[in-house]
């Protein structure tokens, strides 16, 4: 009689490759964590507590992540038949293919319903189903089955090594594990893959990863022997069911924020797992404020915001407690000067000699400080270009999850361009790349701007340098000057928002412009500085120069990482307002938010208009009311009176006294409850207004607002002096 093997023994035989994958995965995760620790340098004090937390909690996240990572192999081991059986092979495969396609469709529908995700972001979810598709075409114990298992395992191993290498590159750039930036980049594969190819020797790296994968596979190949003494589909299904239960429990019981328990953000990041953090960020891409953050009663939230937005130059147009529409009145007449707003890619304040940099990479911009109205204490809204564009065009605090540039129903919002357009301006958004990236063309094209991008450069134009992100800054400025010439020739004033790209990896630029090396951040910053100087020089020769205001700022800083969740030193950006014929040079030391730039600019032009902006004209603001909104995609900061309050998902918050130089923070106890309420009110109201479609432009927003009587003095005191 044939020997009868207990089902448990046969199941152990069948699912033994899971042990092989687990060992490989945990080893790769451990090595990755060690390398990231070394890359962190002095940011992580090597105390026993820090190391125990990073590696102990990290092991927990690695085990949780393994449950997800192992699913393709679990499906393989479950679904591949032990032996041929009675059903012909082709019929068996066709039947399984129908089931797989239906399951894939259901998965995509569920992701769309739960996270509003489109196929552009969910396409990776199709890959496991493609793996499953051929599994019914062979049997597990056959030669073909053994080689299929080898090939499948080698593919998984190579994928894990590729992800680990990618995470090292990501950490080198952002000093964090995979986060929402990585999710965001997944949508724009052309730019991201092109950026990687132009920045790194990708072919050599991929080949080295393949060699490493083959070596590891050869060492552990014996753990992949295909043995099965007679398991049945339903018996193997018990293991798959157990794996499903573990998956559901882990999703319900664990989240990406549970690791953030130390005061050092680098330690918290090391304690995570990059793959887990990636999918955690994906789940957070559409955060409903009311569902995930602390809230106030709606009436109280709106009452507080109305009180905080009231300034001496503003009058509410009605008593509706939920309407923020104000009449902003300045002494006329309005100055319909041309405006060029340049948002410079990643121009951190600490690149400037003005703020203590010793490398001499921004000589022109430093020289411009004494010729401009220069703001010393300006803070960006976020760490991504879309956050800067959102702040500059809409003057709103950042909403959690996606920027409004990428949200649905973001058309016809009340924007800076609308105010200029009502006065006969032509408003253009000018970009040196393809404006589909980050949904820029769609957003600006539906909110008062005419979009001008790489496609609008004449074919006869000289392109001095270009990369995957766009043309060199000097060529972008040539495009902008062409638009300015055309609009001026048509007899209209112009408002241009110009977005640069040269200060972005791979850091390439035309040869011979600066002494710093290609492919370096220092070289890119130096070239950015040179290109702005060249642009101003060329603009100076134009007939409209004396009647043009140049506003130069950054979209965000070059780095966003720090020991705290929102390190304020990584949000400090410069601002120049340069118009030698109209605006006297001065240093403005007051705390200023990126959302204050638009209303402050309009105030300098003496515009009187209707507004629902959340920003202030800083020269009309009483001392002591300044604030800023530094935030990440899920952590929402409010900086006021040298106190930083940060709202977090799970209705958590932290409050600290920030160090403006290092970015560190000291927890405050007891917490300032009034400032907590202010923080909640701002973010809650901004999110609620967008969700309800009330940030849109209304027909009567174009109605003229009567200016104030002309002042007797030459200028208000607040515009000629700067307070702390």
TrEMBL record:
Membrane topology per record: Multi-pass membrane protein
Keyword Coiled coil carried by entry: no
The Sulfatase N-terminal domain, residue ranges: 338-606
Subcellular location: Cell membrane
Transmembrane segments annotated in the record for this chain: 18-39, 51-81, 93-115, 121-140, 147-171, 202-219, 240-258
PANTHER family per UniProt: LIPOTEICHOIC ACID SYNTHASE, PHOSPHOGLYCEROL TRANSFERASE I
Protein name: Sulfatase-like hydrolase/transferase
């Amino acid at each position: 009689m044939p020997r009868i093997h207990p089902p448990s023994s046969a199941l152990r035989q069948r699912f033994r490759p899971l042990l092989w994958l687990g060992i490989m995965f945990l080893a790769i995760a451990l090595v990755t964590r060690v390398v990231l620790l070394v890359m962190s340098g002095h940011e992580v004090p090597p105390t026993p507590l820090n190391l125990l937390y990073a590696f102990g909690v990290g092991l927990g996240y690695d085990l949780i992540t393994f449950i997800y990572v192992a699913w393709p192999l679990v499906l393989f081991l479950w679904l591949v038949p032990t032996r041929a059986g009675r059903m012909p092979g082709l019929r068996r495969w066709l039947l399984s293919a129908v089931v797989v396609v239906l399951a894939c469709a259901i998965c995509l529908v569920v992701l769309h319903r739960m996270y509003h995700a489109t196929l552009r972001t969910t396409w990776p979810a199709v890959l496991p189903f493609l793996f499953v598709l051929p599994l019914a075409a062979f049997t597990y114990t056959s030669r073909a089955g053994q080689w299929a298992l080898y090939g499948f395992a080698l593919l998984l191993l190579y994928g894990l090594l590729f992800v680990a290498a990618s995470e090292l590159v990501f950490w080198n750039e952002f000093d964090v594990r995979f986060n929402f930036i990585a999710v965001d980049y997944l949508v724009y594969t052309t730019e991201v893959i092109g950026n990687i190819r132009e920045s790194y020797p990708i072919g050599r790296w991929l080949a080295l990863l393949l060699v490493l994968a083959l070596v590891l596979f050869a060492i552990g190949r014996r753990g992949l022997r295909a043995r099965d003494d007679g398991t049945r589909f339903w018996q193997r299904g018990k293991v798959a069911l157990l794996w499903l239960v573990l998956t559901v429990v882990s999703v319900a019981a664990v989240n990406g924020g549970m690791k953030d328990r130390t005061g050092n953000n680098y330690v918290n990041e090391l304690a995570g797992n990059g793959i887990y953090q990636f999918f955690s960020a994906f789940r957070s891409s559409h955060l409903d404020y009311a569902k995930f953050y602390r809230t106030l009663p709606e009436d109280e939230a709106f009452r507080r915001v109305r009180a905080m937005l009231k300034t001496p130059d503003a009058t509410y147009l009605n008593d509706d407690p939920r309407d923020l529409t104000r009449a902003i009145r300045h002494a006329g007449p309005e100055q319909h000067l041309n405006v060029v707003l340049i948002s410079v890619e990643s121009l951190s304040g600490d690149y400037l000699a003005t703020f203590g940099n010793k490398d001499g990479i921004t000589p022109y911009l430093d020289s411009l400080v004494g010729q401009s109205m220069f703001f010393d204490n300006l803070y960006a809204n976020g760490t991504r270009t879309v956050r800067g564009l959102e702040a500059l065009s809409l003057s709103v605090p950042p909403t959690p999850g996606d920027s409004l540039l990428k949200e649905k129903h973001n058309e016809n919002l009340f924007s800076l361009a609308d105010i200029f357009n009502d006065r006969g301006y032509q408003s253009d958004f000018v970009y040196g790349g393809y404006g589909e990236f980050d949904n820029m063309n769609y957003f600006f094209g539906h909110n008062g701007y005419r979009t001008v991008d790489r496609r609008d450069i004449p074919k006869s134009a000289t392109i001095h340098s270009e990369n995957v992100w766009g043309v060199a800054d000097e060529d972008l400025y040539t495009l902008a000057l062409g638009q300015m010439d055309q609009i001026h020739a048509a007899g209209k004033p112009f408002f241009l928002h110009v977005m640069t790209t040269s200060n972005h990896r791979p850091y390439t630029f035309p040869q011979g412009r600066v002494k710093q090396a290609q492919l370096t951040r220092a070289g890119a910053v130096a070239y950015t500085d040179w290109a702005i100087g060249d642009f101003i020089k060329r603009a100076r020769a134009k007939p409209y120069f004396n009647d043009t205001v140049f506003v130069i700022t950054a979209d965000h800083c070059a780095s966003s990482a720090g020991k705290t969740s929102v390190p304020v030193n990584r949000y400090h950006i410069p601002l120049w307002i340069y118009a030698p014929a109209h605006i006297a040079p001065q240093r403005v030391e007051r705390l200023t938010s990126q959302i204050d730039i638009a209303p402050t600019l309009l105030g300098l032009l003496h515009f009187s208009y209707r507004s629902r902006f959340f920003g202030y004209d800083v020269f009309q603001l009483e001392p002591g009311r300044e604030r800023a909104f530094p935030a990440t995609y899920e952590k929402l900061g409010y900086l006021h009176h040298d106190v930083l309050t940060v709202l977090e998902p799970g209705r958590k918050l932290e409050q600290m006294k920030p160090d403006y130089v290092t970015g560190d923070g000291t927890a405050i106890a007891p917490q300032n409850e009034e400032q907590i309420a202010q923080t909640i009110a701002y973010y809650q109201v901004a999110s609620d207004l967008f969700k309800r479609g009330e940030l849109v432009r209304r027909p009567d927003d174009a109605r003229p607002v009567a200016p104030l009587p002309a002042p007797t003095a030459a200028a208000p005191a607040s515009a000629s002096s700067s307070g702390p």
